[in-house]
Backbone:
């Protein structure tokens, strides 16, 4: 940690602008680095902001900051009332609270002389605000730091491809690494369970034999278990349970999703095929729709592990205020043996008695119809695995999947970020996805499906003409119904533009929006433009 801190401290003392990417494995003490760097900023007479993805998930972080800086900390997040926010804002502005801890909007905190901007888990999508005023906290922080001669410290166990690329040799960011856990505690041992074999052995249940045995072993020893399930997919993917084949769009390499008219569709370019009754790879009949809910996992766990105390944490069980903390507290106190949950349990939790993490199904994330699916899978598996073995007992992780050979799963199992990075960059380059290009997502919404669709096709007509004139470079995908094709009574169609230059995409879209006025009233839907969206659902 000291080695990592030196270059940061030097820049802080010199009052120079700089961006650092701190790549540290889970449990390597990144938070300690942030606290030290913030202290250094204070010593130079300046202030600092530390941002976390979601404040509700990090009461432990708030405690750490208060323990270190006491009343000097202001906490800013979206759950504050206007009045509370105003009070905190004043404390920051007056210099009474020179340390700010908050979510993405804290990047705008009115520090008199900002010296340091810390962004923890910089790869998280929550740093981008996607409605109203669109901004990415990372970009704002870098701009502010440039203007004021401050330092930006981005931290993650799984840096975003964009950031890692910029931290290459001789490039904009400087890379700092913490490759070991504190006190050289080992990273958990990760095993990949091939679910195709379970089917062959006649086990059609949710739990593989290996996971069942591992859970029983922990129950015998009185240790705790986390069972992780990705939030139920928005999209229904079709997977062969015997050979693991997933049907993908030949053009976009995106998983096709199942629709009630018994067809499979690509939500980028609208390529459709009839849903096959047998696997085109191995002609198995076990080709089925995917997605198991936490409730179903809970039912089966109760049946399999009768003696265990089981609690579940997902959006259904945490709707009431404080229920999130209550469930965690009782689990930490040992009132249950097994905690079943979604994304909520993946991040930042320190549960020392957990020695086994079971990932029920890695494929729901892996086959999301989104070009970032592999990256999200690697991030999620790394985060989840990081929950295991944080106490004195060594940890183990079991990942159940029908794609045991996929590089994002094998790399996560080997704790090999660089291996994942190289593979994924190769794929992105080959397909021309970011960070090798920029994407613009145009969303057309209307209460009437036909109007949304008509608008999308009118837009397509415009772009096709413009692109012919411009010649090459920019690619047009769609129109197609969005993966989430109806939200709050509005139908959604989308168009994707892909090109090497962000500005030329922006210009083209501006021209389109200008022209819109002239083609109304034929064009009715609301248009929403998102450049480099974090998700493509
Ligand atoms: Zn098959
Ligand atoms: Zn496609």
Residues:
């Amino acid at each position: 940690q000291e080695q990592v801190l030196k270059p940061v401290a030097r820049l802080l003392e010199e009052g120079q602008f700089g961006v650092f990417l701190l790549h540290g494995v889970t449990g390597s003490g990144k938070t300690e680095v942030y606290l030290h760097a913030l202290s250094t900023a204070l010593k130079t007479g300046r202030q600092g902001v530390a941002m976390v993805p979601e404040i509700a998930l990090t009461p432990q972080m708030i405690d750490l900051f208060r323990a270190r800086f006491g009343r000097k900390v202001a906490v800013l997040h979206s759950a504050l009332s206007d009045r509370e926010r105003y009070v905190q804002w004043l404390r920051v502005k007056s210099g009474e609270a020179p340390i700010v801890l908050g979510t993405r909007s804290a990047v705008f905190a009115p520090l008199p002389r900002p010296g340091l901007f810390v962004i923890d888990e910089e790869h998280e999508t929550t740093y981008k605000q996607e409605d109203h005023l669109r901004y990415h906290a990372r970009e704002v922080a870098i701009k502010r730091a440039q203007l004021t001669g401050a330092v930006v410290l981005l931290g993650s166990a799984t840096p975003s491809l964009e950031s890692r690329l910029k931290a290459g040799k001789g490039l904009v960011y400087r890379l700092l690494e913490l490759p070991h856990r504190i006190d050289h505690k080992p990273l958990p041992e990760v095993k990949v369970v091939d679910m195709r074999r379970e089917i062959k052995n006649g086990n059609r249940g949710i739990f593989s034999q290996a996971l069942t045995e591992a859970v029983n072993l922990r129950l015998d020893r009185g240790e705790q278990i986390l069972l992780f399930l990705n939030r139920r997919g928005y999209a229904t993917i079709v997977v062969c349970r015997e050979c693991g084949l997933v049907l993908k769009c030949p053009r976009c390499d995106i998983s096709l999703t199942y629709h009630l008219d018994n067809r499979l569709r690509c939500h980028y370019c609208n390529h459709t095929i009839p849903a096959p009754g047998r696997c085109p790879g191995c002609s198995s009949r076990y080709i089925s729709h995917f997605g198991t809910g936490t409730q179903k996992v809970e039912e089966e766990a109760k049946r399999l592990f009768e003696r265990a105390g089981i609690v579940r944490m997902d959006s259904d069980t945490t709707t009431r205020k404080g229920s999130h903390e209550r469930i965690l507290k009782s689990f930490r106190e040992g009132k249950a043996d097994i905690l079943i949950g979604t994304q909520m349990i993946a991040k930042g939790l320190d549960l020392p008695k957990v020695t086994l993490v079971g990932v029920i199904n890695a494929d729901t994330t892996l086959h999301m119809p989104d070009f970032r699916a592999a990256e999200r899978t690697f991030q999620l598996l790394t985060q989840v695995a990081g929950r295991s073995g944080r106490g004195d007992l060594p940890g183990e992780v079991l990942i159940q999947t029908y794609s045991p050979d996929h590089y994002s799963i094998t790399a996560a199992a080997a704790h090999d970020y660089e291996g994942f990075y190289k593979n994924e960059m190769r794929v992105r380059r080959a397909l021309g996805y970011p960070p090798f290009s920029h994407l613009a997502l145009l969303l057309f919404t209307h209460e009437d499906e036909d109007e949304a669709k008509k608008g999308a096709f009118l837009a397509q007509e415009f772009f096709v003409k413009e692109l012919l004139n411009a010649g090459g470079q920019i690619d047009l995908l769609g129109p197609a119904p969005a993966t989430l094709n109806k939200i709050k009574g509005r139908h959604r169609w989308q168009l994707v533009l892909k090109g090497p230059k962000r500005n030329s995409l922006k210009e083209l879209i501006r021209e389109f929006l200008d022209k819109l006025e002239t083609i109304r009233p034929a064009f009715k839907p609301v248009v929403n433009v998102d450049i480099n969206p974090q998700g493509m659902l």
